[in-house]
Amino acid sequence: MREESGMKKSDRKRGGDWRQFLGFFKKVKLSWRWILLALAVSIAYYAAVSFVPGSTAALYAGDFGMAAIMGLVLNYVCTLVLSLVTSISRLIAESKSVRSVRNSVWKRMIGVKAEYYDEHDPGRLLSAVTSDAETTVTSLIAVIIMIPSLIMYLVMCLAQISMYNRKLLAVLFVLVPAYIAYGFFMGRWMFGTGRAVQMRIGGLTGFLTERIRNLLLIKSFAAEKKEVEKGVAAAEGLYKANVQYQYITGVQVAFTFVTEAVGIVTAVLWGCHLLQNGEIDLEAWLAFFLFVPMINTVLRQLAMMWSNIKEVQGRASRMSEIMDAPQEAQNPQAVETVPEGNVVFEKVCFSYVKDKPVLQNMDLVIPHGKTTAIVGVSGSGKTTVLKLLEQLYVPDSGRITIDGTDIRGLNLQSFRNCLSYVTQDAAMFGGTVRECLTYGVHREVRDEEILEAAKKAEIYEYIMAQPDGLETELAIAGRRLSGGQRQRLVIARELLKKADILLMDEPTSALDAETAAAVSNTIFREFQGKTIIMVTHELNFISEADQIIVMNHGRLEGCGTHRELLASCGSYRGLVEEQSYQEVFAQ
Q: Per 3-state DSSP, what percentage of the chain is helix, strand, and coil (rounded to 5)?
């Protein structure tokens, strides 16, 4: 399987995966009505343009009649109007399609399994929603509109030339082999360059996002100079990829100059030969002379369309990979109502990396309406228990049930609505206090209810002290708040959510002892009667737990109360002795 996967990646790098490319545009919704309108108007525009050389040649040849003059004027007016309509409809088609693709990719990114982001940095994927979507879609729409228009235009031009003399057509295809070779060569080059540029943009975006997010860490370690150097190096990679485009542009300019010169010189000589032999008249020769550069341009543009398609394919490859990323399973027959009861792990095995188990045959019962503390040394699998319960990951074997019902048979959204999650860093988004407190609450919440939850979480006075109250704007991730304030806001949010199961992962480890004790008291007071599952080493929590679970290297070493574990579990006694738990659990 690994060799097959590697082969596919290699194929994509060389020439692109057409199945993946076409599959991507089946999964996203382009604005086809506007695209087809722009295509129709574009075809009409090129049809009008194809009559310009003939009308102009008649005037050059001495036909100054009213019909010839009015025909040329009307022709130019039509091309002007059609050009304007084509531009407007194309811009609308591009804007609507880019919006649709961005929405599709973003929705897909949200639904991707958590394990995908273990291997793919989300920060580096941001440009898939921003620059990738815009450049890919606009280039693709240009190809969709231009290829049929150019082909139709070429056919009409050739038809008009053949009306003068079919021998004129022979010289027009002298450069066709050169155009074919050019398109093939440039296509491969553009694919690799397009993909490289988008990857470099993603890398730079991810780098900058991570550094700005941790700007205080950089300053704390006086690492500004080093990070500036890293940023310059990341930008250098994008610069080198962009330089490839300059090379491509240079080749295109040179190719255009040579083919245009060769095409015109050859056509002029051939036209003069036919004119001298009396096979064509002056009007035919003038029309032919005006058609030649236009036809050469069309042939060259058609050749370039292939390279443009390959460039689009290269740019779309990263979005295609996101659209093909594994999604969280949505069971159409899932049970909507989540039962209440004991949470049971039945012989659960799990590993993030193959052959490196994190949990091994885990049998565990978490009683409903009780508080269970999970303790153990670092790396023993404590947080993994919470992630499996949230269904962020799926067990390799075994199952997790609530009141005997496998959680995989429950509607995922309904199930997660029954869970609250309080983490060490008190995760939140920027926005107003109201938006922070009602995040994840899928019902209308009155101000009185919000303020009541704030009082219970002991954050009410802070909110009321702000000039805008609930409408006070919070910094991103609540950075201007203290750790205790953030944690209390999160607790108020979970109180409003009214979930049946509260998951906590070291909720007070980042707080000072006094604040940690106050927060823990609030949690036990306000969530009384709920099923609480906490990963912790804090004495305040363990002393209040109805059940303590001891884990060691992915295995259950002990389960019981503090006194029971002191008597029966050596690992637990070691934790107690190491962290001086005796001061809290006085004998």
A: 65, 10, 25
Whether the per-residue pLDDT at 384 is higher than 80: the answer is: yes
Question: Please, which pLDDT band fits residue 574 given cuts at 50, 70 and 90?
Answer: confident
* In contact, 377 and 552? CB cutoff 8 Å: yes
What is residue 348's predicted lDDT score, i.e. its pLDDT? 93
Q: Smallest Cα–Cα separation from 285: which of 297, 268, 299? A: 268
Q: What is the pLDDT of residues 284-335, one digit of tens each?
A: 777 777 777 777 778 777 877 777 777 777 777 778 888 888 888 777 667 7
Q: Residue 474: beta bridge partners?
A: 431
On average, the pLDDT of the chain sits at 79
Average pLDDT over residues 352-374: 89
**Considering Cα of 7, then 10, then 16, then 21, what sign does the dihedral take?**
positive
CA distance 539 to 387: 23
208 compared with 444, residue with greater pLDDT: 444
CB 392 within 8 A of CB 114: yes
Q: Are 346 and 398 in contact (CB under 8 A)?
A: yes
Distance CA 284, CA 558 (A): 98
Predicted pLDDT at 221:
65
Three-class DSSP category at 344: strand
The closest of 85, 328, 311, 315 to 200, measured between CA atoms, is: 315
Rounded to the nearest angstrom, the gap between the alpha carbon of residue 271 and the centroid of all alpha carbons in its chain is: 56
Looking at per-residue confidence, does 131 or 180 come out higher?
A: 131
Describe the strand order of the beta sheet including 405-406 as a list of residue ranges.
359-366, 343-350, 397-402, 405-406
Contacts 24+ apart (CB under 8 A), 335-338: 335/405, 335/409, 335/410, 335/411, 336/411, 336/414, 337/414, 338/402, 338/410, 338/411, 338/414, 338/415, 338/417, 338/418, 338/500
Residue 409 tokens read as: 């048979």
Q: What domains, with CATH codes, occur in the chain?
A: 18-323 (1.20.1560.10), 330-418+499-587 (3.40.50.300), 427-497 (3.40.50.300)
Q: Which residue has the tokens 């209040």?
A: 544
Radius of gyration, alpha carbons of the chain: 34
d(CA 418, CA 501): 6
Strands 371-376 vs 431-432: parallel, antiparallel or unpaired: unpaired
The Cα–Cα gap between 396 and 393 comes to 9
Of 69-73, 189-193, 276-280, the poorest mean pLDDT is in 189-193
How big is the CA angle at 503 (ends 501 and 508), to the nearest 5 degrees?
A: 135
Contact 295, 158 (CB under 8 A): yes
Residue 431, both tokens: 């926005």
State the chain's maximal CA–CA distance in angstroms: 121
Q: How far apart are alpha carbons 318 and 208 in whole angstroms?
A: 19
Determine the average pLDDT of the residues in 251-255. 70
CB atoms within 10 A of CB 197: 24
CB 102 within 8 A of CB 180: no
Alpha carbon distance 419, 399 (integer Å): 18
Q: Which pLDDT value is given to residue 585?
A: 47
